[in-house]
Amino acid sequence: MEEYFSDLFYHDSVTMGPTLLRPKSRGSITLRSTDPFDQPNIDPNFLADPEDLEFFQVGFCVEILETNAMKSVGAKLYDKPFPGCRHQQMGSDDYWRCLARHLASTVYHPVGTCKMAPDSDPMGVVDNKLRVKGVTNLRVADASIMPLVTSGNTNAPSIMIGERAADFIKEDHL
Ligand SMILES: Cc1cc2nc3c(=O)[nH]c(=O)nc-3n(C[C@H](O)[C@H](O)[C@H](O)COP(=O)(O)OP(=O)(O)OC[C@H]3O[C@@H](n4cnc5c(N)ncnc54)[C@H](O)[C@@H]3O)c2cc1C
């Protein structure tokens, strides 16, 4: 494994990393016990939905490598099989699935544990003014209210949610 990566990074000058911006897999946070000070169980459930795994069949990266621009910089597919996937034929769909399961990592953008949703959605926690349904004088203003992860970074949208919360509170009290 160490040899694989040292060889890859020694030769590498152009890398492509596909990023799944709209994952279909859903994780969960559940209570570990009745003790409120216990850490919760956090299960990100990455790649549980088969469509998410299909995304990492990086055929489109291979197509990009075939372009003149990429050829002009000498870019080519790294041709050594990943140690954990040697049982698959390199370049096959199963090989890419195997590689994704071994190498895919998170960009740390979890959202949606208190999602904003209409009353018709039983999983909704806050309304469109960030108020927790069924509880008075309680709002949530962070990334947890995003119903779906944004197609990009989450820090700026989280700041926007905070700004909107401030506006809602002012509307109610000024
Ligand atoms: C390693 C990493 C890298 C990232 N890189 C980027 C990036 O490059 N660009 C980008 O846009 N986003 C990035 N993100 C995502 C971004 O940081 C988050 O989406 C964003 O910070 C979410 O904001 P938040 O307010 O929901 O939660 P947080 O920023 O986590 O804020 C939660 C706050 O609550 C406080 N808190 C927790 N428990 C309690 C308690 N019991 N009482 C009082 N306070 C409490 C915490 O101390 C913390 O200040 C990254 C995240 C990680 C983890």
What compounds sit in this structure? flavin-adenine dinucleotide
| SS class | mainly alpha
Q: How far from one another are the termini?
A: 62 Å
Order of helices and strands: HEEHHHHH
Average residue pLDDT? 91
Largest sheet: 2 strands, antiparallel
Short overview:
Pfam families: GMC_oxred_C. This protein has 174 residues and is mainly alpha-helical.
Describe, in plain words, how this protein is organized in 3D.
- The protein folds into 2 domains: 2-103, no CATH class; 110-174, no CATH class.
- The protein has helices at residues 2-11, 50-55, 59-65, 68-72, 93-103, 155-173; strands at residues 28-30, 41-43.
- It contains 6 helices and 2 strands; from the N terminus they run H-E-E-H-H-H-H-H.
- The chain has 174 residues and is mainly α.
- Strands 1-2 form a two-stranded antiparallel ribbon.
- It is 33% helix and 3% strand.
- The protein binds flavin-adenine dinucleotide.
- The site of flavin-adenine dinucleotide has 9 residues, from helix 6.
